[in-house]
């Protein structure tokens, strides 16, 4: 299939500035990382404008994000997944083992990407046939609500299937259901939505073949399940459902009949190959510092297995072979105990763009608390509003919280923005617990100021031994 046939998939029309602006709504700071990601996405669009010969040679420039935990690496990936119109998966490098060990093999990354791609294409194809499927579902509903008159068969016809049979239509009586068109009008007007009907649906239970799960043979397990599923004939069961629920079931069934799954699989493979994005988190956990032995023996093996996937190879999936040459890989790690140079040299060379995410300062904590679209303070206000409480944070309280989070991170482990979750939970613990009773007593206005923050957190923050356990 030509690439032009999937041009409506996998390409973001946003400029780098627009992509950064979208990420700014949710992530504070880390401008270098946002710019690198935005350029990588825009280069996808640029490569589509090139001639076929040159496009094959322009490979994505993979990105390595380096920064301590809680500074926004995973959040960038999460927001990117919602932003891009391409198959996107996030995986942890620590979940994989080298070939020969019990656990997931790295090729399952590409199998998962192919599965994500199929879901995307299938959803798009379902949307395309939505109207037609809805009409067909309506006809099937009418067949159930207004069944065709039964045809009486002669005894000879029953005995000999091919014999000429005499058919006698039953004469409809006055107490029969009203005409098809009358019911159609009532159906379209939504007057029959709560009527209960009996519907025959395919039993979705699949044969259980779990012996391969969790091993390097998991791909074989998937294929075996598909093979057994295709050999066993579909079973049907009767369900009593409302017309509203039946319509959804029938629309889905009719849409599946209209979709060519072979075409979906082919398109999905091309989409994964040319637009797929893999976010490989915790890459530093498979880096080997110096010589390694004992339980960490497979770490370097995982790197060696990841290498061919990143540099370009062909992985077999149940939808067909997937070439990984043009898949964009974004790796991230804290690199506290290891350095990027501890990765094997070949893997280092496959991540030419290095971005260092900076540790958060006091000003960053203030912005994180208030500025993002669903900032932490906005979340707590919304949660307590469900109990009838109005929560208000004074400016001095926000300043105090930000300073406290920065100081605790300085004195102990730097866990970035996650420190704010701990501080806020401890700060609002009493209010959250007493909220229902406070609302009943009419104490609905709750004001958090610097004095209240000190009262709840000062002693814990000052006592280093205590804060190690609580904060």
Q: What secondary-structure arrangement, pairings included, does this model have?
A:
Elements: H1 16-24, H2 31-48, H3 52-57, E1 63-66, H4 73-83, E2 88-92, H5 107-128, H6 130-145, E3 151-153, H7 155-159, E4 167-169, H8 180-188, E5 196-202, H9 218-231, E6 236-242, H10 243-258, H11 261-275, E7 277-281, H12 299-311, E8 314-317, E9 320-323, E10 328-333, H13 345-349, E11 353-356, H14 362-370, H15 376-385, E12 390-393, H16 395-411, H17 418-427, H18 429-440, E13 445-448, H19 450-462, H20 464-470
Helix pairs in contact: 1-2, 5-11, 6-10, 14-16, 16-17, 16-19
Describe the overall structure.
By secondary structure, this protein is of the alpha/beta class. The chain has three domains: 210 residues, 3-Layer(aba) Sandwich (Rossmann fold); 129 residues, no CATH class; 109 residues, Helicase, Ruva Protein, domain 3, CATH 1.10.8.60. The strands form five sheets. The protein has a five-stranded parallel beta sheet with strand order 2-7-10-1-11, sandwiched between helices. Strands 3-4 form a two-stranded antiparallel ribbon. Strand 8 and strand 9 form a beta hairpin. The longest helix has 22 residues.
């Amino acid at each position: 299939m030509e690439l032009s046939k999937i041009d409506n998939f996998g390409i973001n029309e946003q400029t780098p500035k627009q992509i950064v602006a979208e990420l700014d709504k949710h992530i504070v700071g880390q401008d270098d990382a946002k710019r690198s990601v935005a350029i990588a996405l825009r280069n996808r669009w640029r490569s589509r404008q090139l001639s076929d010969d040159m496009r094959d040679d322009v490979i994505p420039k993979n990105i390595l994000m380096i920064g301590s935990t809680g500074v926004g690496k995973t959040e960038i990936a999460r927001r990117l997944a919602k932003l891009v119109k391409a198959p996107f998966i996030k995986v942890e490098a620590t979940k994989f083992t080298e070939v020969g060990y019990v656990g997931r093999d790295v090729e399952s990354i590409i199998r998962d990407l192919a599965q994500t791609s199929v879901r995307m294409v299938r959803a798009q194809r379902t949307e395309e046939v939505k109207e037609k499927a809805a009409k067909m579902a309506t006809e099937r509903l009418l067949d159930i609500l207004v069944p065709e008159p039964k045809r009486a068969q002669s005894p000879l016809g029953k005995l000999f299937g091919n014999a000429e049979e005499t058919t006698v239509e039953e004469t409809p009586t006055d107490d029969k259901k009203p005409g098809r068109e009358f019911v159609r009008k009532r159906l379209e007007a939504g007057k029959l939505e709560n009527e209960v009907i009996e519907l025959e649906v395919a039993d979705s239970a699949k044969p259980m073949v779990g012996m391969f799960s969790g091993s390097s043979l998991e791909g074989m397990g998937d294929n075996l399940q598909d093979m057994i599923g295709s050999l066993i004939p579909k079973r049907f069961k009767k369900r009593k459902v409302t017309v509203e629920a039946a319509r959804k079931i029938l629309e889905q069934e009719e849409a599946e009949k209209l979709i060519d799954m072979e075409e979906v699989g082919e398109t999905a493979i091309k989409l994964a190959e040319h637009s797929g994005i893999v976010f490989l988190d915790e890459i530093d956990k498979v880096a080997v510092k110096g010589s390694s032995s004992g339980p960490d023996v497979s770490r370097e093996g995982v790197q060696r297995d990841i290498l061919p996937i990143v540099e370009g190879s062909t992985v077999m999936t149940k939808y067909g072979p997937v070439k990984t040459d043009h898949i964009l890989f974004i790796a991230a790690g804290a690199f506290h105990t290891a350095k990027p140079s501890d990765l094997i040299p070949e893997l280092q060379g496959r991540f030419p763009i290095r971005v260092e995410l900076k540790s958060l300062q006091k000003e960053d904590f203030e912005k994180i608390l208030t500025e993002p679209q669903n900032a932490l303070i906005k979340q707590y206000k919304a949660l307590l509003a469900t109990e009838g409480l109005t929560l208000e944070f004074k400016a001095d309280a926000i300043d105090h919280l930000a300073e406290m989070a920065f100081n605790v991170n300085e004195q102990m482990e730097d866990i970035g923005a996650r420190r704010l979750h701990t501080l806020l939970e401890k700060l609002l613990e009493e209010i959250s617990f007493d909220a229902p009773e406070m609302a009943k007593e009419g104490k609905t206005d709750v004001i958090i100021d610097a004095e209240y923050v000190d009262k709840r957190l000062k002693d814990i923050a000052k006592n280093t031994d205590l804060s190690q356990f609580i904060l």
